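Thread: "does anyone have the structure for this chain?"

Original post by V.I.:
We have the sequence but no experimental structure in hand. Need at least a predicted one for the grant figures.
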Amino acid sequence: MKKVIEGLKAVAETVALCRPKVISAYPITPQTHIVEELAQIVADGKLKAEFINVESEFSAASVVLGASATGVRVYTATSSQGLLLMLEVLFNIAGMRLPVVLCCANRAVSAPINIWNDWQDALTVRDAGLIQLYAEDNQEACDMHIQAYKIAEDHNVLLPVIVNLDGFVLTHSYDPIEFPTQDEVDRFLPQYEPLEHLDVKNPMSFGLMAGPDRYMETRYALQESIKGAKSVIKKVAEDFKKAFGRYYGGLVEEYKTEDAEVVVVSMGSIISTIKDVVDELREEGEKIGVLKIRTYRPFPKEEVMEVLKGKKRVVIIEKCVSIGGTGILTADIKASLYGMEKPIPISNFIMGLGGRDIKKEDIRQVIKISEKGIKENEFYGLDEKIVKEMDV
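Reply from O.Q.:
Generated one for you, tokens below.
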């Protein structure tokens, strides 16, 4: 069934098709419509689930942690400061190997207060042990949620998955969305069968104390498990294609990269605009392509290296920065290419922070700027008048 619907409500309807048993969340712009819609779906009796209102995002994460430990499918959603307030619990969820699925409507982090989109929130929690997926459009965001449960609950993975979609750019836009039927989702995503769970008839303990003699081994196991999730992510993407006919790539997606001399790398909704620019530049005779990072954690090192090797130039566009360091996506790209026989010139541009528009002409300009030499951490699109007022 296809219908035109707001992005957040489309996500909510898709999550309901996945039949979570416990949903807990705290409202925060621009995520709120997901949990509002899910609350209505539960209230109307269309989904048999426990919807739990809580007083903060920390509590929401704690509720789904506890519920997941009892062996049921769970869901929560958040954004920006809300995600950061969850961070302590997210480390616990990952460390306890609980397949929690959550959504982040990506939004800038204060201060100053800003409700518009960039990636700073999700990339700040990148080291917690969550699998991170980034959607290009609302159809992919919906399909990602179905895939996320399949990935998280795989007995070779058992890790939380966070689905990221750009706040306002996607969340509040209306698109025609193809919804699968309940029977189709049930066939693709059977009822969750935990390996272990809390049960009064068979008492267990989760998240116990680990001293220096054991803690390091648990972190090693987590690292190996998230690396091993790559094969599961790719298989789930292929299985989804067979079941529903839509395919976005598993870890990465290539667009006109095969004969490209220049490749633009990015994530999220900006990919669609970059593809449009690449189409125009191709018509003008330029050999250029796009590499979309779909799975940010585990980072697709081998796939990135395979796509970019032999290219004359790489241009990275990212909506985040590690203050005092470098572009966060850039650091991973450079690490992936380290040690190659022939180094590739890499320029990275920090753009769109706090929801500033990134237009096609902006993308053309940064590609042109990169022709003149390597640019590192180039903040493109600054208002020089404001910069001067700040006496930087």
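V.I.: this helps a lot. The chain has a mean pLDDT of 97.
O.Q.: and The longest strand covers residues 101-106.
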